[in-house]
Amino acid sequence: MTKTPVVFIHGLWLHASSWQPWVDLFRDAGYDPVAPGWPHEPETVEEARAHPEAVANIGINDAVGHYADIIDGLGAAPVVIGHSFGGLIAEKLLGQDLAAAAVAIDPAQIKGVLPLPLAQLRAGFPALGNPTNLHKAVSLTQKEFRFGFGNALDEEESDALFERWTIPSPARPLFQAAAANFVMHSQAKVATDNEHRGPLLLISGTADHTVPDVVTRSTLKQYRDSAAVTELQQFEGRGHSLTIDHGWKDVADAVLEWLGQHLPDAAGDAGHDASHDLSTSAPA
Asked: Which residues of 54-69 are buried (b: 16+ CB within 10 A; e: fewer)?
């Protein structure tokens, strides 16, 4: 039986290799996973830190086109799983009917989402605080990472994740998302009214500073005009680091369980039980 491909898409400030535990888990579950980086992203964390100019000025549509080209070479519509801006990209690919299903974990806000909590403004300030950053790649400090990603962790774990996975990332997507509701043809716009797309799962960490839970709940509401399956799972007390911290497998198991329900033929042995505290909304 042909294995269903899975494409993992990271967000800003994390390297593609941060998905490796997920890749291993999904391969063991019967999928065919890949975790490609953003356009021009160096192969390693060390190279990415040494060459921030490689990803400078990359926008949302640049990344979407990059992943669309990767999907085109897979031979079958994949499951697309994205975190943060990777979640927004996953939503766009699903809306364009390029994916069999999508999971958007703490996804960056799409056009139409109105809440803008103070914590989110502070988390985005390292990039948005200077207009000249639009064309640059920006790095986080250890302290900025702890606020935006590791606020639900102890300081030791947050600092370890910072050292292991963080890279400079283009600031342009943050500016595009921040201005989305004032731009007619914003690159942060998603085809939320597509009724023929595959199922979508939104995941939110309720303690997230970078993409607060209220933002993800507002994203869910944007899909109210589509009859396609759209669901939300909330992980209590989890922050933006939920895909890479000590509790990552709780989230990954929940995704495998959801895929087993909505794409039952996608994998042959995805017999994973999720043991975590979450709540699930009714379909939008």
From this structure: bbbebbbebbbebbbe
